[in-house]
Amino acid sequence: MADPDTLEEYRAKRNFSRTPEPPGERKVSSNPVFVIQKHRASTLHYDLRLEVDGVLKSWAVPKGPSTNPKEKRLAVPTEDHPLDYADFEGVIPEGSYGAGTVLIWDRGTYRNLTEREGKEVGVAEAIRRGHVSFRLEGEKLRGGYALTRFRTGKGEAWLLVKKDDAEADPERDPVATEPRSVVSGRSIEEIGGGEGE
Ligand code: MN
Asked: How far is the CA of 119 from the centre of ligand 1 (A)?
């Protein structure tokens, strides 16, 4: 039996004759990827996406990730995105959902580290249970991170926290000091779109 199509919400929000974003389809790859896209929309945020069962599970992180284990970063879940969205960098036109500029801030592969009572827990199940632990192998970010759900008055939100491992570094602030695309080397202003154009 086919998995339910979790990209319906993604597609329903977008008009693919207007936006350069991919319509996408479910795909499976051997090394799961992650991407963090800096998105200058109505508010600037960083979209963290993890490949899980052929789609990109997604969270919007307003302040972006930290390399300091003492910094908890709010991460708000958003709709699943297609896998080929990990390659998207460009301008979503005015009047479209998410209008603004997208920059591939970091990208690479990740490894699931989630365990429960000494047994590995699959990423999809870990997300359903509200706690996922993983190791990033990106260009800017490396090492362990954890995403943990908490309930708010209005619904759900998550916290993204760096694990206290060899790659933790409270002195680094890559969101501030490494703003450019890992794919094109461009800044968000160089990609264009939005104010100032
Ligand atoms: Mn976004």
From this structure: 34
Q: Bigger pLDDT: 25 or 119? A: 119
**Residue 181 belongs to a domain:** yes
Residues 98-122: tens digit of each pLDDT: 999 999 999 999 999 999 999 999 9
Q: Please indicate, yes or no, if residue 61 is contained in any of the structural domains.
A: yes
46 alpha carbon – ligand 1 mean position (Å): 7
Return the closest-CA partner of residue 81 out of 130, 177, 9, 3. Answer: 9
Ligand 1 (ion): residues with CB under 5 Å are 39, 47
Residues near 93 by beta carbon (within 8 Å), at least 6 away in sequence: 18, 19, 99
Range of the domain at 128: 4-191
Gap between the Cα atoms of 43 and 58, Å rounded: 17
Inside any domain, residue 72: yes
| Domain-embedded: residue 196 | no
Distance from residue 79's CA to the centre of ligand 1 (Å): 10
147 C-alpha to ligand 1 centroid (Å) = 18
Whole-number Å distance, alpha carbon 86 to ligand 1 midpoint, is: 12
- Number of residues assigned to the chain: 197
**Separation of CA 3 and ligand 1 centre (Å):** 25
Give per-residue pLDDT as tens, 72-97: 999 999 999 999 999 999 999 999 99
pTM of structure:
0.90
Taking the C-alpha atoms of residue 133 and residue 65, their distance in angstroms, rounded to an integer, is 15
Count of the separate structural domains present in the chain: 1
Query: What per-residue confidence (pLDDT) applies to 93?
Result: 93
